[in-house]
Amino acid sequence: MNFNFSQNIILEDERVLLRPLQEYDIENLLEISIKEPETWEYSLVRANGKENLKNYIQIAVEARENKTEFPFIVFDKKTGKYAGSTRFYDINFGFKTLQLGYTWYGKAFRGTGLNQHCKFLLLQFAFETLGMERVEFRADNNNLRSIAAMKSIGCQEEGILRNHMPIFGSELRRDTIILSILREEWFKEVKANLLKRITE
Across the beta sheet with 156-166, what order do the strands follow? Predict the structure, then answer.
């Protein structure tokens, strides 16, 4: 597929708007970055503090320019505030696969249903516009909140990559859990179930 990484993709419904993350968005995410540094407890690339956030956004924007990732900023229409960020990465159009991750939200937006709205829009775009066959999700196997969120939208657990990655600021290594949603699962049940949850 001839996908244009420079296009201004907007994904939105009545609750949320996702648009391409830009370098100027440091001001839109700075409050969460400074006040809630624990948000990146399980991340190798931290965005806590202004300098780390600036670096985080710069890496994401450069990855988009290099056509390997497509990062979004998340705007919560209900509160009128920016809530966090997410992205498509490890995009392989030949294999029709991608990963969905680097997802984080400020505390005020967790458990509000915002994530389900975001995931619906992102999965719908991946399967129905990009024509993907598989969307993969990964997380630190100790990140129980993230794993529960992924399973709640219909992700199927596939297995564990043992001793997979270093842990930030430590000599220890982490196990990584792999989950996914397949195209046939999206159309068979995941889409309908997720749509029902966000419209109840």
Answer: 11-12, 16-20, 69-76, 81-92, 97-105, 134-140, 173-182, 156-166
pTM for the complete prediction? Answer: 0.94
CB burial readout 146-177, b (16+ within 10 A) else e: bbebbeebbbeeeeeeeeeeeeeeeeeebebb
Classify 48 in phi/psi space as left (phi over 0), alpha (psi -120 to 50) or beta. beta
Q: Mapped to the 3 state alphabet, what secondary structure does 132-192 carry?
A: CCEEEEEEECCCHHHHHHHHHCCCEEEEEEEEEEECCCCCCEEEEEEEEEEHHHHHHHHHH
pLDDT digits (tens, 9 = 90+) for 154-174: 999 999 999 998 887 778 899
- Which residues, other chains included, contact 20 with Cβ-Cβ below 8 Å and sequence gap of 6+? 8, 9, 64, 70, 71, 72, 73
User: What pLDDT is stored for residue 43 in this prediction?
Assistant: 79
